Amino acid sequence: MSEMKPHRSPAKADPAPSRWSYRYHRLMLTPLFRKVLRVGVPFTLSLGIGLIYFSDQERRDGFNLALTDLRAEFENRPEFMVKLMAVDGASSEVAEDIREIVPLDFPLSSFDIDLEDIRSNVAGLQAVKSARVKIKSGGVLQIEVDERQPIAVWRSYEGLELLDAEGVAFRALDSRFDRPDLPLIVGEGATENLAEAMQVLAAAAPLQERLRGIARIGERRWDVVLDRNQKIMLPEELPVQALQRVLALNTARDLLARDVAVVDMRLAHRPTIRMSDEATRERWKVRASEAGIKTQ
Amino acid sequence: MIELYESQRAMRNMRRAAMQRGVIAILDVGSSKIACLVLRFDGSETLGESNGMGAMAGQAGFRVIGAATTRSRGVRFGEIDTMAETERAIRTAVQAAQKMANIRVDHVIACFAGGDPRSYGLVGEVGIDGHVVTEEDVSRVLSACDVPEIGMGREVLHAQPVNFALDHRSGLSDPRGQMGARLATDMHLLSVDGTVIQNIVHCVRRCDLELAGIYSSAYAAGYAALVEDEQELGAACIDMGGGTTSVSIFIKKHMIYADAVRLGGDHVTSDISMGLQVPMTMAERIKTFYGGVVATGVDDREMIDIGGDTGDWEHDRRAVSRTELIGIMRPRVEEILEEVRAKLDAAGFDHLPSQQIVLTGGASQIPGLDGLASRILGQQVRLGRPVRVQGLPQAAVGPGFSSAVGLSLFAAHPQDEWWDFELPVDRYPARSLKRVMRWFRDNW
After folding, report:
1. Under an 8 A CB cutoff, do A1 and B81 touch?
2. Are residues B246 and B356 in the same domain?
3. Domain span at B149
4. Mind listing the pLDDT tens digit for each residue in B237-277?
5. What residues in chain B have their Cβ under 8 A from chain A's Cβ atoms?
6. Residue B51: what pLDDT?
7. Which CATH number fits domain A150-289: 3.40.50.11690, 1.10.238.10, 3.40.920.10, 3.30.460.80?
8. Which ipTM score applies to this complex?
9. Low-confidence ranges of chain A (pLDDT < 70)
10. Are A279 and A260 in contact (CB under 8 A)?
11. Which helix or strand (DSSP H or E) is residue A60 part of?
């Protein structure tokens, strides 16, 4: 076969690959090489082009500027604009305060509003218990506020203040008569034991007409103060039960209607009564007359 | 012998590396075609390891994932004649097979038919003072074989232990672990022309491939075309290729003889070409379509246009009857078979218990060849095809691919060769200290 002369019938093109095409074919069948070609080369190429392009400061600035412009344009689209603020659940003066501490210039893009910041600002107000801030559709910044509800008036050295259920003094009062409906609590450390105070006040409900307030004494126990300068001194432990005993005495013997200055319940097994000077003198007088001693 | 041992061991290591990578190529360098198969191993190598080629064993370990053939250029009589042409042909085949397999192969096992193979029977005997035969003893007895004069410039291609004998017991295939006093072995040694091997090695190297083994195609074809009982009982495989016809004789699953006749299908073609005055390509075509060796009455009436493109009407309109064609082909085929007969006689094939002869190879596809061959070679002649292997395309299952398929089987399960055993201790000078120690222990 090999000695066949190619001069007749133009020899069929030899299908043999050239040395280099054979090597190229083998190279292309090498798995690692194929992977490099498929992943490595495009990666290197794009990285190189990117690096060369951004090696120039001017082009880098231009690119950043374009990026910023694009971002600003997107953020300022009308669907992202916030046009007004609504405050829900706040009384008018609190709403006033809120508007004061959230100084936003509407209209404003919603991307520029830091909701968490606003929320913590609003919640930082004394009169606000909690706040929720959200952007509603239609471009409204909605602030929902839970105000603190006053349950007592607290008199301290600074003056009169309103207390809420958590014992937070949140607003100053000019006069006790602004809120005559709320009970009065007096003394240092009264706010820490507000729950106990409220229990005592609840127990003292039968004396509502005569109740002036309760006072924290020595930051450890309570006095119930009635009009006519009457005081009921309660023990540290179980003050409510002690008060109930006094009330029981009152019901049975009409104790508090008498001329008693102090009902001392501090020693639970030995309730003590201090009478007023007037009553003491009266008593002496009565005794003396009983004994037939003539006085003055 | 030591260099040969080292280089063959290096090829074995290359094969092991290829097995680890899982891909190996088979290259059959023939005179009329070059075939390349790409095998993928799936790791189940242990299967059928002990019994060589079992019922379907041996083939389970690999799968053919690429196959390609190309017209051979520059190969005559199974030897490389024009290096550059052959290299191009190998490149074509390897590239096409790689493309089909879609994987790159770096290791290749090659076989060739030429190089004037000659067989030698070697006998070695060694004393083993009554202890258990170890692998070291086996290597010792293999090394004890006295190497015959194989001639200048010739190389050993195969050196296989065929038989072991322990004392009076012969016919052992594996003497390890048995007791005895004397261990003897029969070794079959096949030598070929050294330059032919060098050329093939060089050609494969130039294609950027590593050679992981080199085989005689007679051996490979016999291994693939003979069925198991034929290999066991004794049979001859005649691989009729394009440039050479190889003969191999198997018994007990080992090749014991190989030889080659430097005549093949190409000679038939050239006879037709000369006899009918047609070009070689046309002659090949006529041979393939109308060829035969037994003429019948109907062949007188079957006219074959043999054509031509000279422009001379008389010349271009020639036609011959099929009888004439057969008349040209038959003497040449007879000549080939006579030569084969002579080789078989020289090998003493008559003395084998079984006289089975299997014809394979591309040229064995001539119609009527088995009838002609049985007249010349003996009664038990059959046409052989290679065993089925997994994934082999339909185009490559014909008898022309016997040696390629046989090589695939060898790639999966090579038979023991001399270089598969470690060299015995006394061949290494570094171990002489150990011998001194033993001498001391024996004498004091």
Report:
1. no
2. yes
3. 118-193
4. 999 988 899 999 999 888 999 999 999 999 999 999 999 99
5. 31-32, 70-76, 81-82, 85, 88-89, 91-92, 94-95, 98-99, 102-104, 207-208, 242, 266, 279-281, 284, 309
6. 43
7. 3.40.50.11690
8. 0.74
9. 1-14, 293-296
10. yes
11. helix A57-75
Q: From the CA of A27, how many Å to the nearest CA of chain B?
A: 8
Sign of CA dihedral A24, A29, A33, A38: positive
Does position B430 have pLDDT exceeding 70, yes or no? no
**Which residues in chain B are contacts of A4 at CB distance < 8 A?**
279-281
pLDDT at res. A5: 44
| B281·A14 Cβ contact <8 A | no
Report d(CA B258, CA B192) in Å as an integer: 11
CA A52 to chain centre: 53
B128 CB contacts (<8 Å, ≥6 apart)? B137, B180, B181, B182, B183
A30 contact B CB<8A:
yes
Q: Nearest Cβ partner of B104 from A9, A14, A29? A: A29
Residues of B whose CB is below 8 A from A1: 31-32, 71-73, 242, 266, 280, 284
Contact with chain B for residue A284, Cβ under 8 A: no
pLDDT in tens, B273-306: 999 999 998 999 999 999 899 988 898 899 998 8
Domain assignments of chain A as residue spans, ordered by start: 78-147, 150-289
Q: Could you tell me which residue, B427 or B59, shows the higher pLDDT? A: B427
Contact state of A9 with B102 under an 8 Å Cβ cutoff: no
Amino acid at A214: I
The answer on B301 and B240 residing in a single domain is yes
**Strands A140-147 and A128-136: what pairing?**
antiparallel
Confidence of residue B1 (pLDDT cuts 50, 70, 90): low
Chain B within 8 Å of A16 (Cβ-Cβ)? Answer: yes
Q: Are B59 and B388 in contact (CB under 8 A)?
A: yes
Q: Say what the pLDDT of residue A6 is.
A: 44
Distance from the B65 Cα atom to the nearest Cα atom in chain A, whole angstroms: 14
Could you give the CA distance from residue B325 to residue B327 in angstroms, rounded to a whole number?
A: 5
CA distance A2 to chain B (A): 6
Residue B326 banded pLDDT, cuts 50, 70, 90: very high
Cα–Cα dist B263/B259, whole Å? 12
Residue A2 has its nearest CB partner, among B85, B102, B104, at B85
Average pLDDT, chain B: 86
- B87 and B134 in a single domain? The answer is no
Shared-domain flag, residues B12 and B110: yes
A2 vs B81: CB contact, 8 Å cut-off? yes
- Angle at the Cα of B264 from the Cα atoms of B262 and B265, rounded to 5 degrees: 165
A57-112: per-residue pLDDT in tens?
999 999 999 999 999 999 888 888 888 888 888 788 888 888 888 877 777 888 88
B285 to chain A, closest Cα gap in Å: 13
Mean of pLDDT values over B354-380? 90
The CATH number that applies at residue B13 is: 3.30.420.40
Q: Residue B154 carries which side chain, given as an amino acid letter? A: R
| pLDDT value at residue B59 | 45
In whole angstroms, what is the distance from residue B46 CA to residue B49 CA?
Answer: 6
Q: Which CATH superfamily is domain A78-147 in?
A: membrane protein fhac (3.10.20.310)
